[in-house]
């Protein structure tokens, strides 16, 4: 089949690390163009790419089928609306939009224009998350009682990316990091009945949120999502406790570091974690107590792009639906309400 001509709306970290490497090595895609208003950085890595100086110029190119909207969060809605109106399929970087109302409008418009719309929740294809899915699907710890997921780092300095530190819509760690954890929780457990959120800022001179502690209430278990920029000694990325036992796993997916180092996802052993990062399973199996490290699943963000190709060319379901992306935004909005009101918010 004809490769899908694909264009990026920017070539910052998202374009350089999370999209261009996968598009460029997948034979089902052609990295056709990029929007860079003044620079030509993409051409240094991809000499044959076409550089556009405006979104309007990109949208007027009939050769482009698919556009990746990977601009700052606050621009997702405006950019995406123009892409849909131009009749192009699109991938929107997480978070989908800044509000659920914006998300609903884009979903409706995409259906009217008959274009594919998907949100890039790539962390569904992290090795640790895939391993947790396997542990739960095989009922290795019994019925879940509590799960806690962390996305921590030690980074007390403000970002050099000015737009990330301005107190505008869609800015802060709950949108940037929390959207990953929320999407994973919803994939594992579905929508919660209610939530309680504690949001704050701790970096000196920070004007945006850099700490969150969100508790999701389900009928038979609890899920805790946490992130802080002041965790020098990493905690387990995932801790799950069930009626039979526990599973503990580091956040150790190697793909982002490999991509930042300039590696491409077509090399051997892509996405394979070192054995030292295997998760610890302490549980009851066949009437005896076991405590052992279990193999980690292989992560691969290319699975997402393979799914996009199938959606466009073979009319299959998109790998991440826009509706899924909207649910993440609804959780984020509820978390802000909970923090402001200092009470549990029912969904």
How is this fold's topology laid out?
Blueprint (H helix, E strand, L loop, with lengths): L3 E5 L4 H13 L3 E7 L6 H4 L4 E3 L2 H5 L6 E4 L6 H10 L3 E5 L6 H14 L3 E4 L6 H11 L6 E7 L22 H4 L1 H12 L4 E7 L10 E7 L4 E7 L9 E5 L3 E4 L5 H6 L18 E7 L2 E7 L7 H12 L8 H20 L3 E2 L1
Helix pairs in contact: 4-5, 5-11, 8-11
Task: Name some characteristics of this structure.
347 residues; alpha/beta; nine-stranded mixed β-sheet; six-stranded parallel β-sheet; 15 strands; 23% strand; globular
Order of strands in the sheet with most strands: 14-13-12-11-7-10-9-8-15
Mean pLDDT: 97
Class based on secondary structure composition and strand pairing: alpha/beta
Distance between the termini: 44 Å
Individual helix count: 11
Order of helices and strands: EHEHEHEHEHEHEHHEEEEEHEEHHE
Unreliable stretches? none
Residue fraction in strands: 15-25%
- By DSSP, the count of extended strands is 15
Question: Could you describe the largest sheet, including whether it forms a barrel?
Answer: 9 strands, mixed
Instruction: Write down the Rg.
Output: 20 Å
**Which outline best applies?**
globular
Describe the structure.
- This protein is an alpha/beta fold and 347 residues long.
- The protein has helices at 13-25, 42-45, 55-59, 76-85, 100-113, 127-137, 173-176, 178-189, 255-260, 302-313, 322-341, and strands spanning 4-8, 29-35, 50-52, 66-69, 89-93, 117-120, 144-150, 194-200, 211-217, 222-228, 238-242, 246-249, 279-285, 288-294, 345-346.
- The chain is globular.
- Helix 5 runs antiparallel to helix 11 (322-341).
- It is built from 11 helices and 15 strands.
- The strands form 2 sheets. A 9-stranded mixed β-sheet has the order 14-13-12-11-7-10-9-8-15. A 6-stranded parallel β-sheet has the order 3-2-1-4-5-6, sandwiched between helices.
- The longest helix has 20 residues, at 322-341.
